[in-house]
Amino acid sequence: MAVTFVDRVVLHLSAGSGGHGVASVKREKFKPLGGPDGGNGGRGGSVVLRVDPQATTLLDYHRHPHRAASNGKPGAGDERNGADGEDLVLPVPEGTVVKDSEGRIIVDLVGMGTEHVIAAGGRGGLGNRALSSARRRAPGFALLGEPGEDIDVVLELKSLADVALIGFPSAGKSSLVSVLSAARPKIADYPFTTLVPNLGVVTAGTARFTVADVPGLIPGAHEGKGLGLEFLRHVERCSVLVHVIDCATLEPGRDPMTDLDVIENELALYVPDADLGGRPLAERTRIVVLNKADVPEARDLAEMVKPDLEARGIEVFVVSAVAHQGLRELTFAMARHVEAARREIEAEAAVPQRVVLRPRSVDDKGFAVARESGADGDFYRITGDRPVRWVHQTDFSNDEAVGYLADRLGRLGVEDELFKVGAVAGDTVVIGTGDNAVVFDWEPTLQAGAELLGSRGTDLRLSEGSRPTRDEKREAQRDRYAARAATQDELEAERRAGLWQLREEGDDTEGR
């Protein structure tokens, strides 16, 4: 049988890489070196998920799970910037939950037109025109474009229905949906006829709400038996749960009370996503529908068990989807509970949420240096957005570009931090993580001595704030006189001891 409905897929997404900047020199007649004019590369396209009213299933992504956005164009001479890559917009149904590969929720897409950038495109590299400055008038290099993000995500479709019809297979859930709304699900007299959730819009007076037929609930559904785990997720968003119980079943060991207890146990054992803010299924509003009352034996059984169910505090309705009996009362009861649930949600939304601001710490350098151990010995790993981005933008075949990277890392304080953690010249340093990390042997930047005098245009020797007093000057002069006298006495003592002699006039021999 061909697959027509898919509510869970794994997507492999790749955003576009940024275009490379270009190193170019402007050339005109009688101006062979007119200055740098290399343009910047274009931004890579991003992958965007957008809620689309026309999308009802994830089937297209099940067939084609690999999606990629376009890359940015490289820059050109004469200060021409490259074109940006086109964003890839993927339409998804409303109620799609996006998770990462470890199961953490990234975003819950609710509301028509809602969109989320799931994979950001890479930045374009700067050309040598943008890199020029007063100190670097003609850069002979340009920055490379950043690679786009690669991410694997899981899309799960969770129906946005107000009421969920739950129960054993062939209990009449699809029949109820067909008579309560304009939906026309497949109906047959064998188990598991319904293989996909069916949604219908129901009108009761001025109230309008949606009803979902959730199939596949049998004992062990929370463990994946039958179609339980596949479709229990569609119950998570529903505020009202309607138990549809077959009172005309002939299966041994089946009766209304047992069926209700089995399904309630499955709901209690199923754990919904807490990040979605939903209450546990055991705390949702309950309604019991004793179906197939058009059969005489089924009506008698329904009238018999109805008092026992009401004794549990549950609202009970005896209906027949085939004979259209008891449907009006059931419809208005569901509308009443849905309206109550909506008012409760609106009241919670009206409460102002506290906004927590977490400013950046004063001592946050924007990067971290840690010592790690590997197969080839210890090494130092540098992590942080800016160092990793700068490495990806560097053309290591250009010595000037490598020097520019070293200057940027030095200004950021990376070398100072390496000294603090104990790194010495020749140690292995890794910038980044994973396969894109850059490994090199560290050679600290040498200082020629001028750096010790302060920044350009200043001299620490001229900026001292205090001058010696007269007594301090006299004390320093006495120390100099004492040192000279001590030196003369030492020389005289060595001469008397015969260690050396004064040369007389006319004597060509050197003193010993």
Kindly list the characteristics that best describe this protein.
Spo0b-associated Gtp-binding Protein, Chain: A, six-stranded mixed sheet, 512 residues, 26% helix, GMP Synthetase, Chain A, domain 3, Rossmann fold, alpha/beta, 4 domains
Provide an overview of this structure.
Its EC number is 3.6.5.-. It is an enzyme of class 3 (hydrolase). Pfam families: DUF1967, GTP1_OBG, MMR_HSR1. It is found in: Cytoplasm. GTP binds at residues 167-174, 192-196, 213-216, 291-294, 320-322. With 512 residues, the protein is of the alpha/beta class. The protein folds into four domains: 1-157, Spo0b-associated Gtp-binding Protein, Chain: A (Distorted Sandwich), CATH 2.70.210.12; 163-350, 3-Layer(aba) Sandwich (Rossmann fold), CATH 3.40.50; 368-454, GTP-binding protein OBG, C-terminal domain (GMP Synthetase, Chain A, domain 3, 2-Layer Sandwich), CATH 3.30.300.350; 469-497. Helix content is 26%, strand content 20%. The protein is built from eleven helices and 18 strands. The protein has helices spanning 59-63, 128-131, 173-180, 228-232, 256-269, 296-311, 327-350, 385-392, 399-412, 414-420, 470-496; strands at residues 8-14, 47-51, 66-68, 88-92, 96-100, 105-109, 115-119, 150-157, 163-166, 198-204, 207-213, 240-246, 285-291, 315-318, 368-374, 377-383, 428-431, 438-441. It has a six-stranded mixed sheet, with helices on both faces. β13 (285-291), α6 and β14 form a beta-alpha-beta unit. It is elongated. The termini are far apart. 33% of the residues are buried. Mean pLDDT is 81; it is low at 190-194, 221-229 and 448-453.
